[in-house]
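Quick start: read one record
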Amino acid sequence: MSKLTREEKWKMYEAGGRFIETLNQRQGEEDDKIDKWMMTLASGSFGLSFAFINQIVPIKEASHISFLIAAWSCFLAVLILEIISFTVSSFCHSIMAKEEADALRLRYQGIETEYKNRSIFSGANALLGYASILLFIGGSICLILFIAKNLL
């Protein structure tokens, strides 16, 4: 393998940086879309059920109120987890960008390094996302059960 000139190394460094920047930007955009959808769905479900539940099932005549409380609790938990997720995601992206910049700088100097792209925060952010999805599904099921138990 031939030795790279300083100019060739610089071009590789720049290309790698642009590639990583593009990947991080796209990943961030996708994460933001998912977070926004979860916030929209959870807040919409919570708000609509709260506003219109009395027209569907009058609360004074309702049975199985625990399903409704569980649904609202799940939707509220999704909103809280998504707010936490926004913060963790932002922090995670800044850590990843710094780690990649450091790795590229070392590679440019001829020192081979491994880019890990995983931190405890990215794992935590993934768990927050999965928990939000599961809680939304759980809240939706509880709301459907509440309505079904009271209308049938």
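Residues 6-151 form one domain.
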